[in-house]
Specification:
By secondary structure, this protein is an alpha/beta fold. It has one domain: Metallo-beta-lactamase, Chain A (4-Layer Sandwich). Helices cover 17% and strands 32% of the residues. Strands 7, 8, 9, 10, 11, 12, 15 and 16 form an eight-stranded mixed β-sheet that branches. It has a seven-stranded mixed β-sheet with strand order 6-5-4-3-2-1-17. A two-stranded antiparallel ribbon has the order 13-14. A hairpin with a 2-residue loop joins β9 and β10. It starts with a strand and ends in a 9-residue tail after the last strand. Bound molecules: zinc ion. Zinc ion binds next to α1.
Amino acid sequence: MKLTFLGTRGEIEKRTRRHRMHTSLMVSYRGADLMIDCGLDWLGKFERLHPSAIVLTHAHPDHAWGLRRGARCPVYAPEKTWQELQHYPIKDRHVIDERTPTKICGITFEAFPVEHSILSPAIGYRVSAGRCRIFYAPDLILIHDRIAALKKVLAYIGDGATVTTSFIRKRGKALIGYSPVRAQLTWCEKERVPIAIITHCGSEIVTSDEPKIVAKLRAMAEEWGIEVALACDGMQLELHGKRSDPG
Ligand SMILES: [Zn+2]
């Protein structure tokens, strides 16, 4: 499985050379190129990447608004996301049901609900190809069924909106916002995920001295035996094989 971090910028004003485009990941396997999320920065631009299909996590501007003039390829999204994008001129639309493995061009996607926004409910995807498995959740506070979501996952790709400070607000019974990277690393530790890659970078990362942040993250992750990396636009990663669990 090959991963290409097409974009790594969150919903912030600032953009830099390393984090220029809205967060999007291309997952490639045996000739198929599946693009996860297509935010506004990609409007009029994603076509040149020739994705085999596009899969959406939620309907926020930095994740879906690049599709507002439609797409020539099939687009997959949960029902709740489609409700918000009804008026988009997308012809080839497919619904992804939560917790139902869906095979798209040879790559299996399973949607897990995550807590993030009331108006635009979000999901994270467990993506499997061959023996390799990742979990991708660019925007979240928590994964509702974390144990199942991270089962046998080799790499967790998570939300860099904040590194150490929580941005979580209560709205009635629900929570909205993001969990800091620190909290996400503890999930990896608990579910024995050996690799964590941070994308969807917020201003804490984008406006700071990145090597310093990376050093801080490594120090946190090291004691738990997790390898952590900060993604930047254009970063590529080849993942092989499966996670080897003791016992
Ligand atoms: Zn976002």
